[in-house]
Design brief:
Layout: E1 8-11, E2 16-19, E3 32-37, E4 40-50, E5 56-66, E6 69-71, E7 78-85, H1 88-98, E8 102-107, E9 114-117, E10 125-129, H2 136-150, E11 155-159, H3 177-183, E12 187-191, E13 198-199, H4 209-215, H5 224-232, H6 234-237, H7 245-251, H8 255-267, H9 282-287, E14 292-296, H10 303-319, E15 327-331, H11 335-338, H12 345-360, E16 366-372, H13 380-383, E17 386-391, H14 397-406, H15 412-416, E18 425-430, E19 437-441
Parallel strand pairs: 10-16, 10-17, 11-14, 11-15, 12-13, 12-14, 15-16
Antiparallel strand pairs: 1-7, 2-5, 3-4, 3-7, 4-5, 5-6, 8-9, 8-19, 17-18, 18-19
Helix pairs in contact: 2-3, 5-8, 7-8, 10-12
């Protein structure tokens, strides 16, 4: 290419670059390009393209290409470097250098090719969002399959709509290394009231005293007598199953104990099917660290019971955090557990524990992946701690603006494209992807448990 037809880039700081006149370049936001200057080649990402006259490109430098590898610690300023499109070989260098090996889809921007995530960067909290119909849950399943197949990271899935209950099965046409690996993984599915399934249960006596109070809807000030009785019964409640507590409370001469027994009976807590009794509790299954544990939260007869399961699991993992046994906590429809508007004692206790894990859990190996339709439905103390973003179709301008404030590492022009994403398309940004990328996700290897119901036709 002659000098007078070259597209020339400029960088003052060795981190970002710009092209003053890119009218002859096909590069768009999300494209990978190479800038070449004085024998040095650097890989870069286009973050924005202005279609005003003259056409301008802006982006970030990802590192220097040296002898078949990418040195991400080395990037350099330049005055006039030739801008070239990256090819698939360069993409492969990027993936190999960064350790991106979870094959989740196909890139929608040049140079195309496979889209891969970095498994070791799921040691940060992840926010996953997309409106109804975007393919959010299906795409999440694609990523979870890859994590289960190709890492040793145990996963616990809080599944309110039974979307992941078939994660341990393979589609008849599933084949290849990922399918072969998945077939060997230990996936446990716990369900409340499904005949033949492993039961989903919680153990009251192992819950912290504050969580027991939440189950009983006790406020330490408004219900101070009963709450104080609960504190004094700490040893009894820590060694006795809930169905055996009532007789002891009734036989006591303490009026506060009698009132506590009446509360248990009036709330109907003893009739909840969630209590483990002689059966295995969910916390005990998770402690065995299967490759994946699916908690099918949606099948209980009352809404409080799925909160009991969630709280018991989160409490147990937090209580034992010093053991530093890594686990990824996937919360689908996270607004059910993490909304700032939830106000029942149980819901508040679950949310506060999630906030605590979001703020402090990372160093103990407790990592969150929160999936929801609306960012505004997640407590800001949780979403602000997320270093990875997966964004699918989102039409709400308010939600997109909010995402831009929380996730500054995601190029604004790529976020702005979200309303026009097709089903199954996503923007990945943050530490778990080599560079922000627009992606069409792969087909699932396992059946989706809760697919949409079709409209009956005559």
């Amino acid at each position: 290419m002659h000098a007078d037809t070259e597209i020339l880039a400029h960088s003052d700081d060795g981190r970002s670059f710009s092209v003053a006149d890119a009218a002859g370049s096909p590069a768009v936001a999300g494209s990978l390009v190479v800038v070449a200057d004085a024998g040095r080649r650097q890989l870069a990402l286009v973050e924005s393209r202005s279609d005003t006259t003259p056409t301008m490109l802006r982006g970030r430098l990802l590192g220097e290409l040296v002898e078949g590898r990418l040195d991400t610690r080395s990037s350099h300023a330049f005055d006039a470097a030739a801008l070239e499109p990256a090819d698939l070989d360069t993409l492969d260098v990027l993936h190999r250098t960064t350790g991106a090996r979870l094959d989740v889809g196909t890139a929608l921007t040049p140079p195309g090719g496979p889209a891969r995530l970095l498994p070791h960067r799921f040691n940060r909290h992840t926010f996953w969002c997309g409106q109804s119909g975007s393919g959010k849950t299906y795409a999440l399943g694609v990523v979870l399959e890859q994590l289960i197949a190709h890492t040793a990271l145990p996963i616990v899935i809080f599944d309110p709509n039974s979307d992941f209950v078939r994660l341990g099965e393979l589609n008849p046409d599933a084949h290849g290394p990922s399918a072969d690996a998945l077939a060997k993984r230990d996936v446990r599915v716990l369900r409340p009231n499904v005949e033949g399934a492993e039961p989903l249960r919680a153990r009251f006596m192992t819950m912290p005293i504050g969580s027991k109070a939440a189950v009983l809807q006790l406020d330490p000030v408004a219900d101070r007598d009963e709450f104080n009785s609960l504190l004094h019964l700490r040893d009894v409640l820590g060694t006795t199953e809930i169905d055996r507590i009532i007789p002891a409370l009734h036989e006591s001469g303490d009026p506060a104990h009698h009132r506590l027994a009446l509360r248990l009976e009036n709330l109907g807590v003893l009739d909840w099917e969630v209590w483990a009794g002689e059966r295995t509790a969910a916390t005990e299954v998770i402690d065995q660290r299967p490759d994946a544990t699916v908690l099918d939260l949606g099948g209980f007869s009352t809404p409080e019971q799925h909160l009991v399961v969630a709280l018991s699991v989160l409490d147990e993992l937090w209580e034992r955090r010093e053991e530093r046994r890594p686990v990824l906590l996937v919360v689908d429809e996270a607004h059910n557990l993490a909304s700032p508007t939830l106000d029942s004692e149980l819901a508040v206790a679950v949310r506060e524990r999630l906030i605590q894990i979001a703020a402090e859990g990372r160093k103990f190996g407790l990592w969150l992946l929160l999936s929801t339709q609306r960012p505004s439905k997640i407590h800001s103390g949780i979403i602000s701690q997320c270093d990875n973003l997966a964004l699918m179709k989102m039409s709400s301008p308010l939600d997109l603006a909010e995402l831009g404030t929380y996730f500054g590492y995601a190029p604004a022009e790529l976020i702005a494209r979200s309303p026009w994403f097709r089903q199954g398309e996503a923007l990945f940004a943050g530490g778990f992807v080599p560079a922000p990328a627009l992606v069409k996700v792969n087909a699932r290897l396992t059946p989706e448990g809760g697919s949409d119901v079709g409209v009956p036709l005559r």
